[in-house]
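Morning, I've got a small favour to ask if you have a moment. It would help a lot if you went through both lines with me. Thanks so much in advance, here it is.

***
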Amino acid sequence: MTRPGFAVRAGMAVVAAAAVVTPAFAQTAQAVPPRQWEFAGGVSFVAPATSGTTSADLLRPDGSTLPLFRARRETSSGLGLEAHLGTAVARRLDVEMSGVWMRFDARAVISGDAEDVRGVTLTETLTRFSLEGAAVWRFVDGVRVQWFVRGGAGWMRELSSDMALASDGIVVNAGAGMKYWPGAARPGQGRFGIRAEVRLLGRRGGIAIDDGSFRLWPIVAGSALMRF
């Protein structure tokens, strides 16, 4: 009789302990917040820039060169569309993937022509697509206002207006910006805000730059934010 009674009491103790531990474990598991994602979509503006000067020369019979003309290459200002999808991987560190579409003009201004032809400017409208990955560090991480620095790199392709020319290249960028969330943060609910930033875009290759050099362009961008 003693052993069955002891077994019953032991079993009741185990059940009671399980009843106490299970709610505590469930509460701990629910306290871990789910992973959140941020999507930003907006417009960007790239400033005009000079891409350097090249010259066309002929070789004379005596080995000297005959300059035909010089061409100063430059790109106009341009407008683009961009989208970013990111998530946090640490307390203040996010990673994001970005896609950018931009349209601008590449110009060649001719000077020093051997036949004294002046005022010639050749213009081609280009379209650029790029896919980039970036890291975002939030050095001010407030509830409504966040300041961040960002750096990334990726692949790009430039196309001429008639699609007859296409050239790939690489892009890198670094900059800083701000996110503003006007509403109160509520667990489990979406949130909307705005994002503004300035970046310095570096690129090598493409149609606008075909000499293998590395050039820099300043960019200003603004986006609408959604956290889900």
Remarks:
- Residues 10-32 have pLDDT under 50 and may be disordered.
